[in-house]
Amino acid sequence: MGRPPKGTRPVTDPSLTEDFWRELTGHAEPSQREQFLWLSIDLVRELGLNQFKITTVAKMLGYSVAMVNHHFGSRDGLIAECAERVHQNYSLELIDAAEAAERNPRARLEAYIEARVVCGRRLGGWTQVLNYPFHSFESPAIALARSGDAFENSFFRNLMFITQLVLDLQQGTVSETRPDRAAFATEIMKQNPTAVFHAANIGTATAGAVMWMSGRMDVFTQPQEIVDLANAALKWQVQHLVNGIPVS
C-alpha cells in the first residue's frame, strides 16, 4: 500500500524534525507533497543525481514508492519538478545579489558573477541538472512536459538580467527596470548581440568554476592554503570577466 492505514500517521525518519522542515521549507509541517519535493531536493543536493533513489525518499517519509508516482508520475517527474523549483530560487537569488550591491554597474555585475559561483556551490548535486537539464533525465520528454516552460522562463530571466548588467557596464548606467522577452529580442539581441555573447561567456565560465569547486574533492574542505588559492582564483576570474567587457 502507498499509505499507512487510515487514521494513523506514517513512521518517518527521526531526522525529519520540525526544525529540519522549517529550515528547508520555511514551514514546520509542510504538506505531504511538499515533503516529497523538498526532501528530494535536499538529497539530490547532498548525494548527486546518480545516487539519488526515490525508495530512500519514500522510506524516510514512511510511504511506499507508489506515493511518489501518485504525486509526480515517475522519478523523472519528481526530479523535473524539483529542478524547476531549485532553478527558480537560484535565478532569483542571483538577481537579489546584484540588486543588493552598491548602485554602480561594475559592482552589480561583480556581485552577480560571485553569486553564481557561491550559489552554484551550495546547490551541490543540482549543478549537473541546472547546467545540463535535459541530459540529466532518463526520459527528457517527461522533463520537457513537466518543466520545459518553467526552465525556459527561468533561463531567459537570467539571460536578460545578466545581459542588461553587461549593457549597463558598457554604458555607465544602472537600469531601473528589467527588459521583457519582446524587448530583449528586438532591442538587445538584434541591436547589441555582443552583450549577449559576453553574458553567455560569463555563464559558461562560472559554470566551469562551480564544477571545479564543488566536485568530488571540494576545494573548500581542503587545507587553508588550498582554500586561499581557490578564493584568489575566484576573485581573479570575476575581475577577468568584467575587465574583458569593452566600455564606452
What does this structure look like?
The protein folds into two domains: 18-72, Orthogonal Bundle (Arc Repressor Mutant, subunit A); 85-243, Orthogonal Bundle (Tetracycline Repressor, domain 2), CATH 1.10.357. With 248 residues, it is an all-alpha fold. It has eleven helices and no strands. The radius of gyration is 20 Å and the shape is globular. The mean pLDDT is 83. The chain is 69% helix and 0% strand. GO terms for molecular function: DNA binding. Keywords: DNA-binding. InterPro entries: Homeodomain-like_sf, HTH_TetR.
| % residues in beta strands | under 5%
Order of helices and strands: HHHHHHHHHHH
| Average pLDDT metric | 83
Task: Identify the CATH architecture of the largest domain.
Answer: Orthogonal Bundle
From the alpha carbons, calculate the radius of gyration and give it in angstroms: 20 Å
Distance between the termini: 67 Å
CATH topology of the largest domain: Tetracycline Repressor, domain 2
**What is the 3D form?**
globular
How many E strands? 0
Main sheet characteristics: none
Continuous helix count: 11
Kindly name the structural category.
Answer: mainly alpha
Low-confidence runs: none
